[in-house]
Amino acid sequence: MRTVKSIIATTALLLAFGLPASAQIGELRQNFAIGINGGANYSNVSFQPTIKQNGLMGITGGLTARYISEKYFAMICGVQVELNYAQRGWDEKFDQPGDDRAYSREMNYMEIPFLAHLAFGKDRGAQFFLNLGPQIGFMLNDKEKRSGTWSETQLNQEQYGKSIQNKFDYGIVGGAGLEIRTKAGNFLLEGRYYFGLADFYNSTKKDYFSRSAHTTISAKISYLFDIKK
To answer: How much is the pTM?
Structure first.
């Protein structure tokens, strides 16, 4: 499993940094843009043993910097880096009749995605784009919410009250969207999927969970303005 994770992470790194560098025979560009982004997260946690879950809604937002290096035939190539605040976590699903319990855990992160940016379209007007690359994150804090009627046995399940053991997170993220480029700036609408490779609970043979990693679907809007064209 660790070997597969390493292959995925290495592939993402090559995509993020290798593609723009490998196409230097393309038409050179010098476009640097910065701006802001914001949107919503729909999060779950991949647990092993599994835990039934609903999606947990949260917010995400932060700063974006993008450098377009060249245009190779119809494809515009560049790199993008962001610094984002993101709410993740899980909301447990209790589907037994008469069960009034509710439990969720919100985990707040500072995220830094490093993305290869590939776009197709006009310099002024609409562009379809793809973003793909590795992402790292640092957990800032977390909060548990519990309500309803709980027995002592139910409260003693492993995930309740358990401290987060690994606050550094990493994984791969990919997204697609539409950008409208105008004289007033660039407006982007994007959907993303994040697949976590790091477990936030210890996952050795003696530990209860062998996997506890984030998966997140995001929808966000960004505004970028050109610093250098």
So the answer is: 0.85
